[in-house]
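User: Can you recover a sequence for this backbone? Please restate the input before giving your answer.

Assistant: Of course. Working from this structure:
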């Protein structure tokens, strides 16, 4: 059912990397060349297709209720999504990242069902745009035998700090703080367990 992408087993034995620059949640440059998101997609479609990237073979639920098999090829989209998700993981806090993922799923369902011009879709796009304000960075993606793997990512807006994330003894993180947090965070689970023993 494949018409566009190379069979991953027949793809080149040498990997290739692409570097994507992201600003406000959109790819604005690839391999140092400034381009529109559309032109980036076209460029990455060509790069990814020859490495067998972006094949999706699924059984899906149609709007009318029946199931159907779909074979989709989206090499450029796959590469762009991996890069965008990598920057979002650096920049968005836990709640914002999870909400962004939920918005993406809901938006994709609306678009698939022909609901692009609805107030709900407009609202989701506005929320997504707001969440993307700090989603700026650069990502290196390796293309190899059907895979698009992020190998490097950086952002000036990154919330990740190796200094703060280190759980050893230092001035930044006091491990004794964790005990109280864990007791409070698990309170509802402990109460549920006690209630189930009655």
């Amino acid at each position: 059912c494949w018409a566009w992408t190379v069979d991953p087993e027949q793809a080149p034995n040498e990997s290739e990397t692409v570097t994507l620059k992201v600003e406000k949640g959109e790819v604005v440059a690839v391999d140092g060349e400034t381009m529109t998101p559309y032109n980036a997609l076209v460029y990455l479609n060509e790069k990814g297709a020859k490495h067998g990237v972006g094949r999706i073979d699924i059984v899906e639920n149609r709007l009318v209720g029946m199931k159907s098999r779909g074979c989709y090829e989206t090499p450029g989209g796959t590469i762009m999504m991996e890069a965008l998700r990598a920057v979002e993981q650096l920049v968005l806090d836990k709640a914002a990242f999870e909400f962004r993922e939920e918005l993406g799923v809901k938006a994709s369902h609306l678009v698939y069902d022909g609901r692009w011009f609805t107030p709900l879709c407009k609202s989701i796009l506005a929320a997504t745009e707001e969440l993307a304000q700090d989603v700026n960075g650069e990502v290196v993606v390796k293309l190899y035998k059907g895979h698009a793997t992020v190998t490097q990512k950086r952002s000036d807006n990154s919330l990740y700090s190796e200094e703060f994330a280190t759980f050893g003894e230092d001035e930044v993180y006091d491990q004794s703080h964790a005990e109280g947090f864990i007791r409070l965070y698990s309170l509802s689970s402990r109460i549920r367990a006690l209630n189930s023993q009655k």
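That completes the design. Residues 62 and 106 are 15 Å apart (CA to CA).
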